[in-house]
Amino acid sequence: MAITKKTAVETEAVKAAAPVAPAVEAPKEEAPAKKTRAPRKTAEKKPAEKKTAAKKPRAAKAAKEELVFIEINQRQATPADLVERAKADWVANGNKEADLKGIRVYVNTNEGMVYYVVNDSSAGSFEF
Fold first, then answer.
1. What is the structure's pLDDT at 62?
2. Is pLDDT of 46 > 80?
3. What would the pLDDT profile of 54-102 be if each residue is shown by its tens digit?
4. pLDDT of residue 61
5. Residue 102 contacts residue 127 (beta carbons within 8 Å)
6. How many other C-beta atoms are found inside a 10 Å radius of the C-beta of residue 101?
7. If you count Cβ atoms within 10 Å of the first and of the last residue's Cβ in the chain, which end, N or C, has fewer?
8. Per-residue burial over 19-31, b = 16 or more CB atoms within 10 Å of its CB, e = otherwise
9. Is 122 helix (H, G, I), strand (E, B) or coil?
10. Cα separation of 106 and 110, whole Å?
11. Burial degree of 80 (CB within 10 A; 0-12, 13-18, 19+)
12. Are the C-beta atoms of 85 and 103 separated by less than 8 Å?
């Protein structure tokens, strides 16, 4: 094989005929896409379920029973009884129970009588 000298024209012709790889550029970095949130669902909110474990009931403090009794001549009554009797006497005297706004009851142990005042205006009495 003989080495021949190529002329500048031939070299240019070979270069032109040979496929040239295009220059590879580094890929451009794209800005990261903004994340968008999906719209919230507006479903009905369910109340939080309570734990199914049974809770021990608290030991309630023993309620102290407090009663007041009034005794006159071997008769006995509580203040609540006397208030109810006063209301009943007031209604029996021709008044309406719906008109009753307030009542005060007084016990006179010397006389054995119960006196009452209704709505700061009308008064009445009955025997203990």
1. 75
2. no
3. 666 666 677 888 888 999 888 999 999 999 999 999 999 989 988 999 9
4. 74
5. no
6. 8
7. N
8. eeeeeeeeeeeee
9. strand
10. 12
11. exposed
12. no
